[in-house]
Fold each of these.
Amino acid sequence: MAGRGSGWYRGDCHVHSVCSHGGELTPERLAVEARAAGLDFLAATEHNNADTHGTWGRHAGDDLLVVLGQEVTTRTGHWLALGVRPGQVVDWRYGVRDGVVGRHLDEVHRGGGLCVAAHPHAPYDSGTFLYPYQGFDAVEVWNGPWSSDLPWQADNEAALAEWGRSLGAEIRRGGWRPAMGNSDAHLPGQIGVPHTVVRAEELSTDAVLAGIRAGRSWIAESAAVELSFVVSAGAQRVGVGGQLESRGGPVVARLGVRGVPSGAVSFHTERGKVHVASLPGAGVGVGTVEWRTSARESAFVRVEVRHPGGRMAALSNPVTLR
Ligand SMILES: [Zn+2]
Ligand SMILES: [Zn+2]
């Protein structure tokens, strides 16, 4: 598997081992479960420590990249530092009132790392994210199973709605903050639900983080779900995270899905949910949906795929239109 070049890679960037409070899995076990879940990479994000950084080398391989990271659990929200140096621990002993979070984001950025606002609408003490998103590279709009009755489960629907609402204004300002999805696994059987599927030049920390930073990614409930989202104008074709120069002409957004029988597809722009369609119920739920628009009507297009009943199966970052 050496020399894995440009392609789509599946990864879970929020994973805890026994070195985090509540974690039950050894790094070895996490690596086994990551491979079984169809992942190509994971990020080790213990709570405020780097205790496992030295152990991952023997569990990683050409088929499984391990990105070194940390979950920085501050008093007023948690964030993921991804792509830190071996042994690097980012300070967590502050809250929004202290005005110092930017300094710590800079520290991670200077080393080439990425900062992600974690589970912004988690309902427990200190879990709700109270910092402005400014300075963060991505938002974890999907953390763990999409919805459940567990009182500590992140409110993914609220996080997604907030992110979707901000996109139009962010794109107008010339930048937007990609969405990502991670499991926040602490227990057996949790890793990979959900995970982020990233277009990267190769399977390396720098290439994967560059793909996440650029929003060349979509979020999958599991490796059973496949999505291809391409937006075209004439001969031009752009994938998720890209910008299509349509020169005012007609634009076709085309979504292919596999693995969501009887699923509901929706297309979203700054005008909200603009198109819905159903996937076939037979077999593994393979279907294609097309929707036509123009840059005048839509500054961006993104898609969601839900199971019957509303549970999310996959969602994409936007393609922007000019
Ligand atoms: Zn957390
Ligand atoms: Zn966590």
Amino acid sequence: MTVLNVAIVGSGIIGAHHAKAIARHPKLQVTALVDARIEAAEALAATLDPRPSVHLTLTEAFAQATIHIVAICTPSGLHIAAAEETLAAGAHLLIEKPLDTDLAKARAFATVAEAATGRGLVSSVVSQHRFDPATVAVRRAVQDNRLGRVTSAVVSMPWWRDQAYYDSADWRGTWAFDGGGALANQGIHLVDQMLALLGRPAEVYARTALASHERIEVEDVAAATIQFESGALAVLHATTGARPGLPVRLALYGTEGSAVLQDDQLEYFHTTTDPGLRAADLVSPPDVYGAAKDPDGWVTGHVRQYDDLVDAIEHARAPGVQVRHGLEALALVRSVYVSASLGRAVSFTEVLDGAFDDVQPRTQGVTP
Ligand SMILES: NC(=O)c1ccc[n+]([C@@H]2O[C@H](COP(=O)([O-])OP(=O)(O)OC[C@H]3O[C@@H](n4cnc5c(N)ncnc54)[C@H](O)[C@@H]3O)[C@@H](O)[C@H]2O)c1
């Protein structure tokens, strides 16, 4: 069995999480850790067996270690710089969400990543919830037309992040490095799932506000209505100002049935095409990754995403989440910010294609 060497760039919270996921994957090992604060890389390296090499820069890591895959876990505004270096060095790529903070840079990078597939390099963006068995089941139900015509969706993320969270690192809550607030950082998981389930958006109308935190540039509440090209209408809500933090819900309604995802579970399912079919019939995942026994359950999502990446590399196929998916998720987040900043509806395609690249997003306080 071939074992692929992974370099993790950024040894903070999610870098450590990647190391745990890689340790659970039989075809992967952490070979190198990179961090601009070498003590962060050293501290993570000390927890791993075998101990990976540590480096201040990715350039140094490539010079000193054999690296097949680079996992980019730096602050969001630094993702694409490391991604470009990775593909230039001939390694495969897994980029933490969001793809980056700058849509123009992300658009240009999508072309670079597409060209690199011709050299056999696989590039993927983390969106681990796409691989949740419940999400996979609902996606299949939509594709199989079990919900009929999807008329509408309600998507809500009522989470809580205290002030200490935003104060914990300089990059949090900044436009340049976080790319936005509750929607760009936390809500992008839901944004990506909406795109996977509902297709391409047509028009977005949004409001954002900074309602419950201080010393950040970005929103902690976002609310949007989105019309999809299919005609489906969706309501999107994301906040980090909802104490104590409640489950994420994604409800999908159609002419032949409906499905409700709550966190990573399928809470409700109904279809007229097979009235006896229940949620439990659709999601009975084999415990391939030991999820039931995992005290740190959310590592499982990343293990599933690594499994998809390894399979894509082995079979020279596109990964489940491609760079273009990351680009579309970023463009939908940006559409919300552009709409909220201009106070009018915007076309998703125009935002994606760059018509609003020069709009500086701004966040209103609770009193507009
Ligand atoms: N998929 C998920 O569920 C999930 C969850 C949390 C975070 N994330 C993403 O992971 C990324 C990092 O988040 P975090 O919470 O781990 O942040 P963090 O601040 O805990 O860690 C970031 C690390 O990157 C290092 N770093 C900064 N600049 C660097 C550079 N130029 N080169 C190398 N290292 C550098 C920092 O020193 C720090 O150790 C963000 O993009 C975030 O959106 C994803």
Amino acid sequence: MEAASLYLDLLKKSLTDTLVRTEPDVGAGRARFVLDFINHYIRGSAVTMLPRVRLDQLQACIEDVLRRGVPGDLLEAGVWRGGAAILMRAVLKVHGVTDRSVWAADSFEGLPEPDAARFPKEAAAFHGPVMRDAYQRLAVGLEAVRANFSTYGLLDEQVRFLPGWFKDTLPQAPIGHLAVLRLDGDYYESTRDCLVNLYDRLSPGGYLIVDDYGEDEWTDCRAAVDGFRAERGITEPMVQVDSRCWYWQRSN
Ligand SMILES: C[S@@+](CC[C@H](N)C(=O)[O-])C[C@H]1O[C@@H](n2cnc3c(N)ncnc32)[C@H](O)[C@@H]1O
């Protein structure tokens, strides 16, 4: 393996806290997985809660758009402790890219409260003990995320933060084209706010990744994506990364 690959491999192991430990097994029973997830990511020191396969897929998308010259920046909507966005910045660094930015959009105060009338499944999870007490609704402040970038030597002017709710920050965000758009805001409205405000900025040939498309126990994320694709007549095939995460490549 060449030095760049070795660096990115080590970085992904560090971000996922899998240098020594193994990641929770998504194929284990639900109760076992949730417990292991809380222990490994929430109580642990991992900087991303993405499993390794999703980080590898994110890296592959970025390297593909760089290789093919697809114009635009990289954006993650929903960054938590920042790990996936840190990987985005590292991939640009490794390839000597100085004319693209990484955008990190988040409330930096956790998940918004879902409308219980429209999204009862999401509201039940939001108010349930796992999300409320164990996950603390995924709130991680901006300074903590900036510090995580800094820890890895990757906080610079090519990293741009968009603090606030997506519905408020994304419409007027000073973003031009995007080459990779990664949606990880969990809920229907968070996902739809991103699609409505950002999809038109995704360059042809760019990638749209939806972290929770395959999850239907606690989110209506898939309905947001399916509804948007139907409204806009998007027919590019969706590709599965693992049991939860899917993506498509924009063709026009
Ligand atoms: C599952 S976490 C993201 C995980 C992250 N991508 C990683 O690498 O570990 C979901 C994040 O989305 C954010 N979020 C969800 N809905 C949002 C919204 N409507 N506006 C702003 N932030 C939102 C939460 O604050 C949280 O940090």
Amino acid sequence: MMKSEYDIVVVGAGPAGSMAARFAAEKGVSVLVLEKDRDVGYPVRCGEAVSKAGIEEFIPSDPKFIATVINKFSFIAPDGSEVIVPLEEEGYILERRIFDYELAKTAAAAGAEILTRAYVNGLLFDGNKVNGVKFEYDGEQKEIKSKIVIAADGVESRVGRWAGLKTHIDFRDMESAVQITASNISVKPDTCYFYFGEEYAPQGYFWIFPKDSKTANIGLGVGGDMNRKKSALTYLNNFMKKNYPGASVLTRIAGGVPCVPTLDKIVAPGIMLAGDAARQVNPLSGGGIASGMIGGSIAGTVAAESVLMNKPEYVFEYEKRWNDRLGKRHLIFNRIKNGIYNFTDEQFNGIAHAALKLPEEKRTLGNIFKTALVNKPKLLIDVAKVFFTK
Ligand SMILES: Cc1cc2nc3c(=O)[nH]c(=O)nc-3n(C[C@H](O)[C@H](O)[C@H](O)COP(=O)(O)OP(=O)(O)OC[C@H]3O[C@@H](n4cnc5c(N)ncnc54)[C@H](O)[C@@H]3O)c2cc1C
């Protein structure tokens, strides 16, 4: 039975929302999660790639949500040169519909209440402070009061905007992504493939993330203004026609990936943004599962502390903790992205040829970026900061 008031209401039961709910509930405050879809974890709009360390901070690895274990990256240049990089630390391709579900179960186990088919369509205010949400559930319009609302409502987030936060980002920074899950193909299940160049994904990259030896998530993200000239789907269709003409397509999805540093302001009185809603995606890779969980966990912890101390202004501590943990690092990743995303095909070919000259044991991700940015000494310092320091 729903109460009429909660300490914290979380909007959205993706990785960020579930972790916000769990970390808040673990501190003993009352938490309600409202999710608009019928099922937590579905539909999936994700390539499902994540590092092992990224998830194990929050949930032990479990074969039920791991499709494949990845221990190599393969980078393919426009002229077909392939650079294989063994990973220092393994990664996974997840079954996100199960993974998100399991994360939500950890929030429920901590005491959070979760309601699906609950579509949040407005906020309640006390003066300029947010103090609850309006939502539709079972065909009825409802209201619930809360001391704090955590908006973890994904890339298309509207909740932050309702609270007056500036959530808009330039369309050029919103990667336009499209992906299919293709079957009846042949892939190495331990390798993620990344293709670069004009033919594959201008100002972005094309990926093949295997789910088993016959099935893979295949997709690409292109820079926002590139999508106007030729759609991301056209690139994908051309690739499939050329490389996997006999493939069966099991799912097709499209979506935006906000490849930008975190929003300047992710907190306002009574409200905090987490995950894609706060633009907490890694701007270089476009990965947002692990960083969304980190953002959500910090938001949930700080929100609960604010409630327990009865100090509403304490919510602003979240921005500081997020910036110390990942926000500042994302600024560096964004600079590296801006240094490489306009590379020509010739430059990508040159990087691949130089990387292939490295002895195999030196072909690490950090060294590949060092090779790529050898003519941009300022960015080499950034590469050193994120790849060579712990
Ligand atoms: C094509 C594509 C491929 C990607 N591949 C990867 C990858 O391989 N690895 C990776 O790490 N990241 C990837 N990402 C990014 C990743 O999917 C997101 O960063 C991640 O899901 C963000 O988690 P979140 O909890 O912030 O948001 P979401 O997972 O989007 O969850 C938001 C939730 O809020 C709910 N919601 C929204 N509005 C409302 C409302 N008004 N009321 C109630 N509920 C609402 C939604 O239904 C949803 O369940 C990819 C993204 C795309 C588009």
